[in-house]
Each structure stands twice: as structure tokens, then as C-alpha cells.
Design goal:
single chain; about 130 residues; mainly beta; seven-stranded antiparallel beta sheet; 7 strands
């Protein structure tokens, strides 16, 4: 399996780039309507190994929200930055944790320097992975 990261300095410094496509739909049984949204994004991270199997670094993610699966109408965008940590728990398992906060953005529905309509001010992720 090809990994989405690259060792810049073997066993010391890693960089990663990821693309995101996240469709969402919400059904409203009371009205019989359905809403479709899509979030597109680009994320970049750089991490340094501080102990064997433990990497600490930072991540930046740019996200764009659209109404409709076909990217029908632009709803807003946001830029998030924050720290991240990766821990290799065993040969086949890993844990990744990240916290990021919105530093820039804009909603089409509301004026302001952040998009707090489509996105949260803070985002946290905890991912446990197993290779098999």
C-alpha cells in the first residue's frame, strides 16, 4: 500500500499531503426534504520523530464547503492550523491525534473573518488504525 507521506530525512522528518472529499446528506422526515453538502479540502503536515515511533508536528488544512453533491453553490471556506502527534503502538497499530483552530475563512451567509456557519472554530481528531 502506498503511503501519502514522504520521509524528508529518514527516521527524522516526515511530510504529508492529503486531499479530502466528504459528501454529507441530511434527511428531514417531518418535511420530506433532503440536503446535500460537500466539503473539499487540502491538508499538509510536517512531523519530526522525537522518540522511536513517536512523531510530533504541525498541520494546516484548507476546507471549502459546497451545497449539493455537484458542487452546486459555494457556501464558505476556512483555514485550520494546529499540532498533531503520531504514535506507532505496535507493528500493526497506530494512534494519531490532532487539534486545529480556524485562523481564516469566510461564509457566504454571514460576514466576518471566519466561517463559523459551515465550520467549527476548533476541530479535534483521534484516529486509531490497524493494518491487516
Amino acid at each position: 500500500m502506498k503511503r501519502p507521506d514522504r520521509e524528508l530525512i529518514p527516521e527524522k522528518l516526515v511530510a504529508a499531503v492529503n486531499f479530502l472529499y466528504q459528501p454529507e446528506w441530511t434527511n428531514f422526515p417531518a418535511t420530506g426534504t433532503t440536503e446535500h453538502d460537500v466539503t473539499l479540502g487540502l491538508a499538509g503536515a510536517m512531523m519530526a520523530q522525537v522518540l522511536p515511533g513517536v512523531l510530533i508536528g504541525g498541520e494546516a488544512r484548507y476546507l471549502r464547503k459546497y451545497e449539493g453533491f455537484g458542487l452546486d453553490m459555494f457556501a464558505g471556506h476556512a483555514l485550520f492550523v494546529g499540532p498533531t502527534i503520531y504514535m506507532q503502538l505496535s507493528e500493526r497499530s497506530r494512534l494519531t491525534a490532532a487539534w486545529s483552530f480556524q485562523v481564516a475563512g469566510r461564509s457566504t451567509a454571514m460576514p466576518g473573518s471566519l466561517d463559523l456557519v459551515s465550520f467549527e472554530r476548533h476541530q479535534a481528531r483521534l484516529i486509531y488504525g490497524i493494518n491487516f
